[in-house]
Amino acid sequence: MSDVYIKIQASGGGGTTPVGATLMKTGQTTSYRTGDDGDLEEGRATDFTTLAVNNPFGNTNRFTDELGGSTYANDIVIDWSTYDTVAGTVLGIDRNFITAFNTWDSQIDAALVHSVGTFTTGWRLPNIKEVMNFAWWGSTQRYNYSPLNVTSVNVWTSTSLDANYAFPFASVGNTPVYRYLKTNGRNSCYVRTFTVTGTTLT
Hints:
The chain is globular. A hairpin with a 2-residue loop joins strand 13 (191-197) and strand 14 (200-201). The protein has helices at 37-40, 104-112, 128-133; strands spanning 5-10, 13-18, 63-64, 76-84, 89-94, 98-102, 123-124, 154-155, 165-166, 169-170, 180-181, 186-188, 191-197, 200-201. The chain has one domain (5-201). The chain starts with a strand and ends with a strand. It is mainly beta.
């Protein structure tokens, strides 16, 4: 499948920015046989942390802080692989994962009132596809990479199987996605959709 591109001029460098017809690479580089993921490495971007084209800050870093750098003073990680140039939005992650076990409802409630710096609204639990997108499948600990560096957590997602069960995502182990009673406890992480105007995120 070919990427769909829209020509934009980004601050610090122009170029073509993918709109997302092709899924991201998983980050798996070890091959166990011809034709597997580690052999083919199908997907968009150069590798798991390097974009094929510039982000709006004029570099190919997949992950930056909200100012385009790597200081992460607010612990917000912007994932430029999710940048939608048509809508002008991108996904941000609070890299302080919540490691207290709480029910699905409690974690959703906490996410909705979450606040980081000047970003006091709009936080939420990620859905299962969002969580899987920023999981690095080349590691046995799928969030243990810079700038996240999170080890051994199972996080709730906002995606439900039905009224009683939802799908947590495990950063370690043999079963990354499984159904779990919503009344049981799991950790969580919070994400937010940011609006991108030039190099300003709101």
